[in-house]
Structure prediction request, 443 residues.
Amino acid sequence: MLKTFKLGGIHPPENKFSAGQAIRNAELPKVVSIPVAQHIGTPSIAVVAKGDKVKVGQLIAKSGGFVSANIHSSVSGTVAKLDQVPDSLGYPKQAIIINVDGDEWLESIDLSDTLVKECDLDGPAIVQKINECGIVGLGGATFPTHVKLVPPKGMKAEYLLINGVECEPYLTSDHRLMLEKSDEILVGTSLLMKALNVDKAMIGIENNKPDAISLLKEKSSQYKGVQVVPLKVKYPQGGEKQLIKAATGREVPSGALPIAVGCVVSNVGSAFAVYEAVQKNKPLIERVVTVTGKSVQNPANLKVRIGTPVSELIAAIGGLPEDTGKVISGGPMMGKALANVDVPVTKGTSGILMIPAKEARRDEIKPCIRCSRCVTACPMGLEPYLLMTVAEKNLLERAEAERIMDCIECGSCSYTCPSSRPLLDYIRFGKGRVGALIRARKN
Prediction:
């Protein structure tokens, strides 16, 4: 019987239109805008100035603290300016704007396709290399990978879990990466195991990707301690706590991190980026992005340089469909609607989704009918109807007591609500307020 998590979950239509499309290179943009904050934690600090010449892979912004990540140039050219550019939500954020001139890479980066399996570095040296190359979680959270690999004092990792679930509808970038870069992902997994000093790794993949399961099962037999775990399809199984429960049976306590139950979770894209960083000396300067939608004629999985305008990805698949009502960065469940399509691709951009206008409109909000569907669907065992109410009324202490900070913002509650109530919107609002309250209390 296939494994899965037990509490809550839903089954939205998959709409994986781009699953059969091989990864192809997006065209090199003429200008990139590279934000200095592309990760959870402290923004990086620019180390270049207007007029500086840069090469692909060159450090342009240095980590601003322990929970931070280096930023490297994804192109070669001239720094035009350091300026504020809108992020995906329309807020101004500092970025380094570079005019592209050719495609000259640092000589230290190995651009060959030769697979490199052997690594002489010890665990701490691997962590250092990952830190230097600016690797972050590519599943969406963008948590700096080197921080995950250094457990808090008194805690020890037992399992490494590689997240190949990709449970969000429409997105297929991880699926294609597993099919096209399976050996590199497995080497990256072995490097992460060495960095964590663990001897067991599980690669969780939902069984709607039988080709990826079959391929990685066959190849993982060559890698000691690596096991492929097929999972029953259920959203949001790609959440860290849900994946841990499904694969290991362990349950992460409220308010705790995966390391509390001896687990560290890394996305398959991050494992591939670790391979490139450690074995090829290549910083994180590009990623695979799914560009798709129901009305998109040519959905694609594009390898995109960080800082490329989203508008160029849309042009690459034939332009914006006429019936588009909303463009989303990410998937339909957890993604965010873009304020405009000129915002740059960042390390956390997994997909660009064009939603038809008839699906983008919200239905009229009706009173709660106490059906409890949101409670049944919640994978964290919360009461979304109550959290919305206390957030709306600004009852922050009550919201904290009802574990609002445990919400993983999966959207299952809003998806199931027959009254079209904006449950997740209010919960996100409440989480922001409660988070500020907790930080103020600590200070």
Notes: The first strand starts at residue 23 and ends at 25. The chain has a mean pLDDT of 96. Residues 423-442 form the longest helix (20 residues).
